[in-house]
Amino acid sequence: MDMSESVVADFVATFDATRLKRPEPVTGRVLLSEKRLVLAAGDDDKLTIPLSSIVDVAVGHVPTELSGFFESTVTVAFKDGGKQNVAAVEADGDMIQKFSTVLFKVLLNGTEITIKHPARVGGRVTEAEFVPANLALKPQQVVFATSAQRVNISLSTVTGFGRTMRTVLGTDRPVLQIRHMSASKSMLTVVGTESPRRMSILGRYLRLEYSELLDQIEDIEITDNEKKVLVAIYSGAGGADGTLSRIVGEEPSKLTLILNRLREDDLVVDTETGAKLTPIGQVAVNHHLEDVNV
């Protein structure tokens, strides 16, 4: 790796790749810069993967041929000489999580895209046009910066994704549709890029982060009364003035018990201005919104 490059990740891990000389996974050094990923099994056995050649990143997925060797992994698919190759990196769960986050950032941050926001509010199609924007990944959110505004989409407000073709600035290209909530309203934001490769990686990142949030609420049993309280807090009724009790129709003592259960499940947190939803609580509300009519 060129010493002038800034190394953003450097750690020891077990890895395997179709381009390495070793017949089985080996422990070595993993280095990541803003230009390349290097897997170094030794001075004479090193694989350098230009980031521009990476076409997909999967976290936790292990290729079938390596399932007997790996558990917690980042698997990278990359093109070389017209052929697709695969490299899998294994480390402990925390290290893999950190590595995958940094890898997605160096692959996607600064990507020039076009965005139509909002393309739809509720059931109403807007007159918004596609405009150029710059992409940045932030903790549990994506930011699209245009010349006029910064569009921040928290992954906890997302309700779904879709891919389709749209005419963008005069050319047909694949776009990613992001359905999300904002100020209690459902919205659709559409983003596209000239690079199908980066669009695919962005879609992979968003689905991965969103699925992790969904996994956190999958085993939480939420009663109808708890759903009503969550939606009421989401709508801004979490203050300490008794409004929440009136809206959900619960006695203060029973409401206290419900809030305590929601706190224990990390769905609600207390602030100076009253009860607020945690990111997991936000996902739970979006997931159950259609079940409740407050």
Salient structural properties:
294 residues, alpha+beta, PH-domain like, Arc Repressor Mutant, subunit A, 3 domains, eight-stranded antiparallel beta sheet, seven-stranded antiparallel beta sheet, 6 helices, 17 strands, 27% helix, globular
Description:
With 294 residues, the chain is an alpha+beta fold. The chain folds into 3 domains: 102 residues, PH-domain like, CATH 2.30.29; 107 residues, Roll (PH-domain like), CATH 2.30.29.30; 68 residues, Arc Repressor Mutant, subunit A, CATH 1.10.10.10. The chain contains 6 helices and 17 strands. The strands form 3 sheets. Strands 8, 9, 10, 11, 12, 13, 14 and 15 form an 8-stranded antiparallel β-sheet that branches. A 7-stranded antiparallel β-sheet has the order 4-3-2-1-7-6-5. A hairpin with a 2-residue loop joins strand 14 and strand 15. Helix 2 crosses helix 6. The radius of gyration is 22 Å and the shape is globular.
What is shown here, in short?
With 294 residues, the chain is of the alpha+beta class.
Please, what is the CATH homologous superfamily of the largest domain?
A: Pleckstrin-homology domain (PH domain)/Phosphotyrosine-binding domain (PTB)
SS class: alpha+beta
CATH architecture of the largest domain: Roll
Any idea what the radius of gyration is? Answer: 22 Å
- Broad CATH class of the largest domain: Mainly Beta
